[in-house]
Amino acid sequence: MIFDWAVVQYAAPLLAHGVVMTLQVSSVAAVLGLVIGLAAGLGSLSNSLLLRGIIRFYVEFIRGTPLLIQIFLVFFALPVVGVRLPEFWAGVVALALNAGAYIAEVVRGTVGSIEKGQSEAALSIGMTRRGALLWVLLPQAWRPMLPALTNDLITLTKNSSLLSVISVYELTRAGQAIIATHFAPFEIFLLLALYYWALISALAWVSRRIEAALPSW
Amino acid sequence: MVTPVLVEARGITKRFGPRTVLEDVDLDVHEGETVVIIGASGSGKTTFLRCLNRLETPETGQVRIADVTLGRRSDGRPADERELSQQRRLFGFVFQRFNLFPHLTAMQNVALGPRRVLGVRRAEAEARAVHELTRLGLAEHVGKRPGQLSGGQQQRVAIARALAMDPRVILFDEPTSALDPELVQEVLDAMRALAGEGMTMVVVTHEMRFARSVAHRAVFMADGRIVEQGVPNDLFGAPRDERLRRFLRHLEPHHDR
Ligand SMILES: Nc1ncnc2c1ncn2[C@@H]1O[C@H](COP(=O)(O)OP(=O)(O)O)[C@@H](O)[C@H]1O
Ligand SMILES: [Mg+2]
């Protein structure tokens, strides 16, 4: 097999559009996923049994089913109940719901493991459990949570390649389009891998910088 | 004391699983009074303090403070969490291990309650925090995190944190027993000053000199009950209960300050 440099040169700038879309869909999904994960993680530490039950179900469902199925469910099943989302937003919602479940577990685990004396001290100055979570426990959890959160966001970014199946024109989909017309799968998939790798490395770098900037005590 | 009763605990019983840790404990604390609680390890002192401010919920019994019954609304119905947290605020609590918020400076530790619980504006909450910290001799340390402070300084920050909520009574759970010996005195001095200003205090401690010179009353607990109580000099000088006698004999000399 001969490595076709010409197709690489041709594809590299075209794929840049895909990179932009991957960045867009992943970052919007990441923000939404963090919000969902934070809310669900804190909710699972509340004393409402109903709320905890609902969150448990959500987390177990996401962890127990393939992301691909979840993407199809959001894209094809939601219209059945009257919610029709364009591909981009269906992709964002699917990725965010997926990441949110894993992030919720990280939040629950980390915030829940902060020493009991901290929440008792918060209660002793008149805070509610919720106030203690918000003002005392969560601020202490950011730093220990960061590595696991970074992992989940890296996974989310890589998972965005699955959105190609619902025609979100992100990196993988862009690559597939070039393969379809030029038939150079090895070159293009290799190129895609390098693009993803660069993206993920940048994300990991940012995370390390944030970790270094967060105050420690 | 001749002042009115401020805190009234009646028939407090607390179980952990099959173990009864407190059995039918009654205690009145008068306005401005300092009560010291002594007793062997495991006798229920901490649990009793925690039942007073409802960090633990007793199985039976009632705690009243001023005209509030903890866990009840004024119409007698059970208080919800928000109401209970407001009632709990009437008590300050100083923990054996300080339990300061490690990510916040001394000032932020003290200002957090006023800000987030009382809804005081930031500048005002911080001014109040600086005021309380200064009162406890910590003016130069307002900007330091707990990790940068000695144990004695941390415990004084914890006292300032309790004071900033303007409690009716402060509960101290062995406030000096986690401290290196040379740091004990500064905390005891701060507590002595508070008592002198008329703060109502319930103090679990084995610092006998402090008890004798500051407390109006000493209470001895054993096996989850109050066994004997009286003016400290009487209680320590002429103990009647055999367990109290044994306890006083076995108090390590270094406890006596
Ligand atoms: N959360 C808990 N769960 C089970 N047992 C407890 C708990 N807290 C305290 N106890 C038990 O209750 C008894 C009294 O404890 P405590 O109030 O801490 O005593 P003291 O402060 O006098 O040393 C001890 O035997 C202790 O083991
Ligand atoms: Mg104790």
Automatic annotation (TrEMBL), chain A:
Keyword Transmembrane helix: yes
Spans traversing the lipid bilayer: 23-45, 57-82, 88-107, 188-207
GO cellular component, one term: ATP-binding cassette (ABC) transporter complex
Pfam name, any one: BPD_transp_1
Membrane-related topology note: Multi-pass membrane protein
Coiled coil: none
Protein keywords: Amino-acid transport, Cell membrane, Membrane, Transmembrane, Transmembrane helix, Transport
Main subcellular localisation: membrane
Location(s) in or outside the cell: Cell inner membrane; Cell membrane
Residues in ABC transmembrane type-1 domain copies: 19-207
Molecular function terms, GO-annotated: transmembrane transporter activity
GO biological process: one example: amino acid transport
Nucleus is among the record's keywords: no
NCBIfam families with a match to the protein in the record: HEQRo_perm_3TM
Function field: Part of the binding-protein-dependent transport system for glutamine; probably responsible for the translocation of the substrate across the membrane.
Family label: Belongs to the binding-protein-dependent transport system permease family. HisMQ subfamily.
Protein name as catalogued: Putative glutamine transport system permease protein GlnP
Organism encoding this protein: Roseococcus suduntuyensis
TrEMBL record, chain B:
GO cellular component, one term: plasma membrane
GO molecular function, one term: ABC-type amino acid transporter activity
Classification via SUPFAM superfamilies: P-loop containing nucleoside triphosphate hydrolases
Main location, first listed in the record: membrane
Ranges for domain ABC transporter: 7-248
Cellular localization per UniProt: Cell membrane
UniProt KW Nucleotide-binding keyword: yes
UniProtKB keywords: Amino-acid transport, ATP-binding, Cell membrane, Membrane, Nucleotide-binding, Transport
Signal peptide: none
Alphabetical list of SMART domains matching this protein: AAA
InterPro entries: AAA+_ATPase, ABC_ATPase_HisP-typ, ABC_transporter-like_ATP-bd, ABC_transporter-like_CS, MetN_ABC_transporter-like, P-loop_NTPase
Bilayer topology annotation: Peripheral membrane protein
Family to which the UniProt record says this protein belongs: Belongs to the ABC transporter superfamily.
Protein name, entry field: Polar amino acid transport system ATP-binding protein
Species of the source: Roseococcus suduntuyensis
